[in-house]
Design a protein that fits this description.
3 helices, about 60 residues, mainly alpha
């Protein structure tokens, strides 16, 4: 899977899964990225690390709570 960070750079957190999908689509994400985002639980995401953790990607220590 592509690194989703580049497709979620415009997301304002906290956000919902639909916001993640909208942003990724607007940034030109492919079906692989959109498919993975679409499988995320329908919940509120407080920051990018919450999204990356659920996707099994490395988190940015600068965004740790």
């Amino acid at each position: 899977m592509s690194d989703v960070r580049e497709y979620l750079s415009e997301v304002e957190y906290p956000c919902e899964r639909a916001d993640l999908l909208r942003s990724a689509t607007a940034q030109g994400a492919g079906d692989d990225v959109l498919g993975h985002l679409g499988k995320l639980p329908e919940q509120r995401y407080e920051n990018a690390n919450a999204v990356h953790r659920l996707l099994g990607q490395d988190v940015d220590p600068r965004e740790m709570p």
